[in-house]
Amino acid sequence: xxxxxxxxxxxxxxxxxxxxxxxxxxxxxxxxxxxxxxxxxxxxxxxxxxxxxxxxxxxxxxxxxxxxxxxxxxxxxxxxxxxxxxxxxxxxxxxxxxxxxxxxxxxxxxxxxxxxxxxxxxxxxxxxxxxxxxxxxxxxxxxxxxxxxxxxxxxxxxxxxxxxxxxxxxxxxxxxxxxxxxxxxxxxxxxxxxxxxxxxxxxxxxxxxxxxxxxxxxxxxxxxxxxxxxxxxxxxxxxxxxxxxxxxxxxxxxxxxxxxxxxxxxxxx
Length: 269
What we know:
Distance between the termini: 46 Å
Structural class: alpha/beta
CATH superfamily of the largest domain: Dipeptide-binding Protein, Domain 3
CATH class of the largest domain: Alpha Beta
CATH architecture of the largest domain: Roll
């Protein structure tokens, strides 16, 4: 989850993601590129073009240009600071005083949980520093610790509002239907970054309660551009099942969506 209200900052960070390099170097191509909430693979009727074709492709120069256009003094491999405070055109944005460094804490899963997530976090932090002078302070923390202490959706976490910028713990799956209700809607139980957008809420509502078959695609396309999170490659998951366990095919296919139905499984002779 991201905790940056300025969209241009989220766009700049997305331009610093080298997804093709992460996929080949870290995941050894055991995954697919992904730029939105609905995966690009396997093909499905809900996938928008943004899922496979990035709205903010890897382009460090574009990231630097965005920051400079919004009042930041960019120092590659140094410390980028806000030079023009204010909420007007060409200024850093509301709540950002002059001289503020572009520095934030990035929590990620410990190596014992997911070595790949730590490696992609390190790769991103290195690129951000070298290309745009953004100082990303990496910390490995268990997910339960962060939810208990840094969840903006939890009132007890309010005291930590400005102590983190990113939580990176991999993907989030809510079952078969590819809406992001519960994840990116205002007040959603999994919305740990407190992302809030009236447009997103409206589109999510339409995808869940409306009758337009393209509503989910529209929702996914908007979120790919509005960036409630930084989207990373989808890694391949491999499930091994003993031949002594049987069950309907649909219960096994559900594993790909992170949904478990052991109540339908049985032992065979």
